[in-house]
Amino acid sequence: MRKMVRWLAVAVVLTVTGFGAAAPAAAADPVVDVRAFVAAGFHGTTDDDYRAWAGVLASVPDGPSTRQQATAALAGTIEELRAYVDGGYLNAWFADERLRVTRVLAAATGPAVEAGAQAALASSDRQDLSDFLTNGLPVAQYADDRLMASTMLTGGVNNSGPALDAAAQAALAGTPAELREFLLVGQFVARAIDAAAAPVVPAVPVVPAAPVAPAAQPAAAAPQAVAAAAPTRVLAVTGPSSRVSTAGLAAVVLLVGVGLVVLARRRDVA
User: Fold this and answer.
1) Taken in order 153, 159, 161, 163, is the CA torsion positive or negative?
2) Of the residues 140, 167, 197, which one is the last residue of a structural domain?
3) Transmembrane residues, as ranges (predicted)?
4) How many domains is the chain partitioned into structurally?
5) 158 Cβ partners below 8 Å, 6+ apart?
6) Would you call 212 helix, strand, or coil by DSSP?
7) Do residues 129 and 246 both lie within one domain?
8) Banded model confidence at residue 208, pLDDT cuts 50, 70, 90
9) pLDDT tens digit string along 100-136?
10) What end-to-end distance do the CA atoms of the chain give, in Å?
11) pLDDT tens string 50-83
């Protein structure tokens, strides 16, 4: 197993360093090319030269202000185009440079890049923005990359095992481009190798807990005898039912008396 891990670590090192050859060249950055183009200045004389120079600025991929003004200048008169190329582009160009440095600061992962971007943004000389992007940023990024890779060595807080340690050592001994490639890709390959070679820790058996006897339920209370008192039924008008017979008898007597009085009066009249 150790021999296999050693061979896998060597494979990672060879992958990171490109088998001793130079690392593949990074894709050309169009913004870097345009920045060099702007720094070289304009040296044309004809209208076509002016149009060609403004056309380059109109193609800037991440410069909205520069691209907008260059496009407008190309659509205007030749006088407007010449005024733009002869210095009118500078305000828009440096506004976009400030935007680029702000993006670098937001994506910074180390102290060197963060400090450099903050200093460029705080400077009163707007040329410092371009100087940082051209010269300061690569140096600061390399310093931060070395700091990050050093944490992946054996004993470091980000180390995962011997494969990552070997790959990190090779990357630290390589070029800035190789170091960046290791951080972006190689470290994850090495971590996967370390994870695959790690011994499997047997799971600890779980001892079931002893059953708990159910708590005794309290005895149910004896039901209390409830005396069922028969309620007295209430009638709507005449009152309680116990008084119905007396009230009815009184009414009958009254009616009989009235009848006798009426009968006596009829006899007197006759």
Assistant:
1) negative
2) 197
3) 244-264
4) 2
5) 148, 151, 152
6) coil
7) no
8) confident
9) 999 999 999 999 999 999 999 999 999 999 999 999 9
10) 147
11) 999 999 999 998 899 999 999 999 999 999 999 9
